[in-house]
Amino acid sequence: MDIKKTIAAAAISAAAVTSTFAETNEDYIKTFGMIVYKNGGLSELKLTPTEFDIFLQGMKDAYAGKDLPKNIDTFGQKMMEYLKNRAEATLAEKAKETEAKSAKFWSELEKTEGVQKTASGLAFKVIDKGSDKEIASDNSDVTINYTGKLVDGTVFDSTDKHGQPATFNLANVIPGFREGLQKVGRGGKVILYIPAKLGYGAQSIPGIPPHSTLIFDVEILDVKNAPKAEAPKAEAPKK
Description:
With about 240 residues, this protein is α+β, with helices and mostly antiparallel strands. About 35% of the residues lie in helices and about 20% in strands. It contains 6 helices and 7 strands, in the order H-H-H-H-E-E-E-E-H-E-H-E-E. Strands 1, 2, 3, 4, 5, 6 and 7 form a 7-stranded antiparallel beta sheet that branches. A hairpin with a 5-residue loop joins strand 1 and strand 2 (about 125-130).
């Protein structure tokens, strides 16, 4: 295990529910254990309490210096195949539940006043149109405040969590976000309803199950459009 990569993975999980621990050595170790569990694929196995005890026994055996099985080459391949199939089955079950929740949400959203829908499948509701003269394009740099939620209301990310607005180029974000932030101008506010196909699709992102519909409350603080390329000057006719 690469400890640096494992700890870095925790930083990516902006969606994780956090608690405040005292900064003691014991809490550092406890938090590291939580990180290993959350980002090491263990949660995807859905271990029963008995199975988790068996897993812990394996760690205790390694801590005590016991050797791995002698046939680890063949045994390890079978083990990895079993764990992979089990994790995939768990993700497939979760994706099915997520799709059902999303379908119900979109059905209800159609009845919501003020919600518009584009040809791509993006839905949005303008709260404040903002400036008509400062509207982002596909390659604009924008500075925004936002809160990202799942259809059940779970907040998976927000600028409040980071303590400051976010600035990025629209070319580097998911399609639904890129399209949605062009619906209002600087100073505008909009709610985006992004279907999975315009979000993360079947990917499993920390805090975001596969096939999730994403909801973003966004306030656009600033828009910086790329300067337009100057048309080439015509050469004077040669005599």
